Amino acid sequence: MGLHSVGPIHYSECAVPLTVIAVHGLANLLRGAREHRFDLTPIASAFALALFIGLGIFNVLHALALQEQARIQRDIYAWIDRSVYEPSGKKAVVLAPQFAAIWIQVPWMRQLGTQVFEWRRPRLDLSDDVLILHDRIGVEAWLRERMSERRLFRIELRPEAPYAQLRPLDAGSPIPWCGSSPGLPTCGPSGR
Length: 192
Prior knowledge:
The chain contains 5 helices and 5 strands. It starts with 14 loop residues before the first helix and ends in a 16-residue tail after the last strand. The protein has a 5-stranded mixed β-sheet with strand order 2-1-3-4-5, with helices on both faces. It folds into 2 domains: 12-65; 71-176, no CATH class. A hairpin with a 6-residue loop joins strand 3 and strand 4. The chain has 192 residues and is α/β, with parallel strands linked by helices. Mean pLDDT is 82; it is low at 188-192.
């Protein structure tokens, strides 16, 4: 725990001293094997095999953990795309709180956790089908003036399931967060 194959590396300042200690230990092991006239091939093979197995297990477990964390993004973005863009095919803007504020609401997501705290960045030309922007004072009026061709939605957080809902800002009823994940209501036949 604490070391990541991607992203920040915690305790990275310990890498050099730990490498020196490991190399010193390995040199002592080899020196002792030579003094007692052991064949170094089986020792080196055992050491390489232990590294291969140990690091292989670590990488597999780490990859599985990253895949579990990716479920959080898949679930949230699928709900937004399914609710906002797919029914009408019309581009939309979603005013939202910070990404982490949403996944922290759901017990299983909060327990699993993720390193992702912000929404995906939009393309520079703003051509995304669904733009997700932080909900700030005055943003709605600015968007209505400059992006009148897009539908506007706002994500509202709730203390209990469904934990969040998309509210159309023009007209229509709120769309609850639904999905196949634990703690969320299942989607109806329309996918909403």
